[in-house]
Amino acid sequence: MTVGLIGLDNKGILLAQILLQHKITVVAFDGQSENRKRSAEMGIVTTSSIQAVAMHLPSPRIIWNMVDAPYAIKDTLLLHLSELLSPGDVVVDGIGTGKENQADILQILNEKGVLLLFSKLRFPLENSKVWINGDATAFNICKPIFDIVFSESYQYMGAISSF
Fold first, then answer.
1. Where are the domains positioned within the chain?
2. pLDDT tens per residue, range 100-134
3. Class of domain 2-158
4. At CA 14, angle to CA 10 and CA 15, rounded to 5?
């Protein structure tokens, strides 16, 4: 199994390390070359762009967004991913997007057939419960990954219905 990861700060690195420990290949991008270098030394496949992450993933592609930045930047990133992905691909937003823009982003992704899940991660993972909401098909595609990352400390809350 292969997962794309955008954002290699401390939270992104921790997520990647968990995936690597379970023999999941991680293809990642971060805007900071130092983060990419450090990640490559850990066995993470790093790329020079978000586009390259998308190109290196098998279908259906799963891209986990771990960019910890102002909402406007994260929202722009999600919209950019919608242009790179195909129907049936999945974006997992692991940091959270601006509430005021969630409905718009969800609509744009839905129109393109790109599936979306929200799962705001809190670290350390073993001390917190993670709630995941979004598309049921996306959840089923990602469930084996969630089982690894979160063990039994997560719950699927259903579709995104209100903002």
1. 2-158
2. 666 777 788 888 999 989 887 766 566 678 889 88
3. alpha beta
4. 120
